[in-house]
From TrEMBL:
The lineage of its organism: Bacteria, Pseudomonadati, Pseudomonadota, Alphaproteobacteria, Caulobacterales. It comes from the Bacteria. Belongs to the FPP/GGPP synthase family. This is Octaprenyl diphosphate synthase. Pfam families: polyprenyl_synt. It catalyses: 5 isopentenyl diphosphate + (2E,6E)-farnesyl diphosphate = all-trans-octaprenyl diphosphate + 5 diphosphate.
Length: 357
């Protein structure tokens, strides 16, 4: 699916002064939930959680302390949940020891990238907690992230699946590439939609895709099923990130697990901002240039940016695009056996978008 400004109906009229709440009252979308998947995977995920706790231990006290600070606030653990769900959704009912180890690997990769990202972005919160680098320092956070990457690869090797190892190794490289690309295009109001999607595919969606793909491989899925689950994970990850980008302007801190407005305060050119810049062209150019390109932001600027972004319809347009990817994710699942696991994965795709509403 190719997204471009033309398909998202560019904003032309002068903005009207309307309340943010009124502008966010968008047309109903499928609600979805994650509860069904969490319930189905309860026993498998308990084993994965135990494995995560066991493998993040070290004789160096700061390592488990810092890792636990982030891991213990992990919420639904969507990425390892996807790995387990992919193994079960193909019809595997027996032991899935390989996918469980791969699920723990996925969580370690994700946690390591978060530790590194928070330092690069200067984030103050992560998963509702103070960012680790503000407590233990940047050096410790980087090195503990490296430790978790190493643990992840140990677990992959233990599955004796070179194919799964290759999937997650490639994903780790792609994620790093995405972060570097985003860093080089930070504060760039001329960022095109293709490059924006390239960034979010790499930095977010690739791990969703690899999580589902490796779980299917570890459970002995057919090539068709493996491809379908990778496609599902990729589309789900894009929908998830688009909704996250919308939440930065249309959501609350308790929903995000980070401070609302973090993307704006870091000068990130996300889809809602890019659309608003284009739709307010000629009237707000100086404001956007000052707060994003030049990074000269005042405390009150976020409220103004949020008003402009929401009133321009950019948040709703971002969620519309996220919904298209959620639909694409659900379509990919049609090759899998019908049943509770497939239904739960479909509900998760809807949830990825509806949590931003």
């Amino acid at each position: 699916m190719r997204v471009n400004f033309g398909r998202i109906s560019p904003f032309a009229p002068v903005l009207k002064e309307i309340s943010v709440d009124a502008a966010l009252a968008v047309a109903p979308r499928p609600k979805g939930d994650v509860d069904a998947l969490v319930h189905l995977a309860k026993d498998d995920m308990a084993a994965v959680d135990a494995l995560i706790i066991a493998r993040m231990q070290s004789d160096v006290p700061v390592i488990p302390l810092l890792a636990e600070h982030l891991v213990s606030a992990g919420g639904k653990r969507l990425r390892p949940l996807l790995t387990v769900a992919a193994a079960r959704a193909i019809g595997q009912t027996g032991a899935i020891e390989g996918p469980k180890k791969l699920a723990a690997s996925v969580e370690f990769i994700h946690t390591a990238t978060l530790l590194h990202d928070d330092i690069v972005d200067g984030s103050e919160m992560r998963r509702g907690k103070v960012a680790a680098h503000l407590i233990w320092g940047s050096a410790s956070s980087v090195l503990v992230g490296d430790f978790l990457f190493a643990r992840a690869f140990e677990l992959m090797v233990e599955t004796d699946s070179l194919r799964a190892l290759g999937i997650l190794a490639r994903a780790s490289a792609v994620i790093a590439e995405g972060e570097v690309l985003q860093l080089t295009r930070a504060h760039d109001l001329n960022l095109d939609l293709d490059t924006y999607l390239q960034i979010i595919r790499a930095k977010t969606a690739e791990l969703f895709a690899a999580a589902a793909e490796s779980g299917a491989v570890g459970a002995g899925a057919t090539d068709e099923q493996v491809a379908a689950l990778r496609d599902y994970g990729m589309a789900l990850g894009i929908a998830f990130q688009l909704a996250d980008d919308a939440l930065d302007y249309g959501g609350a801190t308790e929903t995000l697990g980070k401070n609302a407005g973090d993307d704006f305060n870091e000068g990130k050119a996300t889809l809602p901002l890019l659309l608003a810049v284009q739709r307010t062209k000629g009237t707000e150019d100086l404001f956007w240039d000052r707060v994003i390109t030049k990074g000269d932001r005042k405390p009150e600027d976020f409220d103004r940016a949020r008003q402009l972004i929401v009133a321009s319809g950019a948040v709703e347009a971002t969620l519309d695009t996220a919904s298209e990817y959620a639909d694409r994710a659900k379509t990919a699942l049609q090759v899998l056996p019908a049943g509770p696991w497939r239904s739960a994965l479909e509900a998760l795709a809807d949830f990825a978008v509806s949590r931003a509403m």
